[in-house]
């Protein structure tokens, strides 16, 4: 995996993530309670608050990077972190809307070490609850009734459209033999970068920041999102299922044209040629879902031999650097700058 500055204090990052959860979760739960049954309980299951039988649970609600960023962005604008809470909740609702739909479209049966919503409650509920979360996101912002809320909602809407564009590109690329590295980065910038960019600007907007400040924070978030997705792509092939909560070789099973695959195919040499031939045959195979572990392992080995893994690790580090450089254009308290840097470091060294 890519490495960041070993001297960073990871304890600070854990505290930032926990602060995001602590401040955002009560507001998030209140929003979910507005949903009509059974959508409210289906959403509660997705967030890990209850189990499949409806009993209270202490599930893994995700990394909470986006809420942490929204609160920090409010502080970057000179406001209290609480000013960013509606933005944190709105972004988290949009993010989870996308997860509910993505899991169904990708056929993923596991998320956060539990069965996905469509697997437990059916595809119709996954679609409906995802739609409901998307609607709630704008409601949470616009009910504030302020000029800043309108500006924040505009950024969230733009990011949401980009996210959906990215998902459409991702699905389309699964059915193509070749995708360029540039196309893959554009797709991942839409699918992941746009919403992280929104998370790290929306709190600042709610805190009264001008567009210049919000745009600079957005650039940090966009490139951080590309670093985040590059690491996700590495974990999607080589991640430990015990840590990721997904199957081994999960992205290969779904024929995803992720960065390691695309970079490997773009390389010269026998490994890239062999990989290209195998993936082309895979696209036509009728029994692809029955491939053995050894067959997926062989494809992963070819990706690594062709340089796809090393290239993606380097790209994660490069995007991390660009993200940190974007912060130079923002005047903010030193401790907030240090915390944004520490969160960026966390993104590129995580294991799930």
UniProtKB/TrEMBL annotation:
Which keywords does this chain's UniProt record carry? Magnesium, Metal-binding, Transferase
A Pfam match is: polyprenyl_synt
* Domain of life where this protein originates: Bacteria
According to the record, the segments passing through the membrane are none
Q: What InterPro entries would the database entry show?
A: Isoprenoid_synthase_dom_sf (IPR008949), Polyprenyl_synt (IPR000092), Polyprenyl_synt_CS (IPR033749)
Family to which the UniProt record says this protein belongs: Belongs to the FPP/GGPP synthase family.
Provide the protein name: Polyprenyl synthetase family protein
């Amino acid at each position: 995996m890519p490495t960041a500055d070993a001297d960073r204090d990871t304890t600070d990052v854990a505290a930032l993530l926990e602060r995001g959860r602590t401040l955002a979760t009560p507001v998030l739960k209140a929003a979910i309670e507005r949903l009509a049954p059974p959508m409210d309980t289906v959403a509660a299951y997705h967030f890990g608050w209850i189990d499949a039988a409806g009993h209270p649970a202490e599930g893994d609600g995700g990394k909470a990077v986006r809420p942490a960023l929204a609160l920090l962005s409010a502080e970057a604008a000179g406001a209290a972190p609480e000013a960013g809470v509606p933005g944190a909740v709105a972004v988290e609702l949009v993010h989870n809307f996308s997860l509910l739909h993505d899991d169904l479209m990708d056929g993923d049966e596991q998320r956060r070490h539990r069965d996905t919503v469509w697997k437990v409650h059916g595809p119709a509920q996954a679609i409906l609850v995802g739609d409901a979360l998307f609607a709630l996101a704008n409601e949470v912002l616009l009910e504030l009734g302020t000029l800043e809320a309108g500006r924040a909602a505009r950024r969230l809407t733009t990011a949401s459209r980009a996210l959906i564009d990215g998902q459409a590109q991702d699905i389309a690329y699964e059915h193509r033999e070749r995708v360029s590295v540039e196309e893959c980065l554009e797709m991942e910038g839409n699918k992941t970068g746009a919403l992280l960019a929104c998370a790290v600007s929306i709190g600042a907007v709610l805190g009264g920041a001008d567009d210049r400040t919000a745009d600079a924070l957005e650039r940090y978030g966009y490139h951080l999102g590309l670093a985040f997705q590059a690491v996700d792509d590495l974990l999607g092939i080589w991640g430990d299922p015990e840590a990721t909560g997904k199957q081994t070789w999960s992205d290969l099973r779904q024929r995803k044209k992720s960065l390691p695959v695309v970079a490997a195919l773009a390389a010269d040499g026998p490994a890239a040629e062999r990989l290209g031939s195998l993936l082309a045959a895979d696209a036509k195979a009728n029994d692809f879902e029955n491939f053995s572990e050894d067959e997926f392992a062989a494809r992963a080995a070819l990706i690594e031999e062709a340089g796809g893994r090393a290239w993606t690790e380097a790209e994660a580090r490069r995007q991390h650097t660009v993200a940190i450089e974007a912060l130079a254009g923002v005047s903010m308290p030193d401790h907030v700058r240090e915390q944004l840097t520490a969160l960026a470091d966390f993104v590129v060294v995580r294991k799930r």
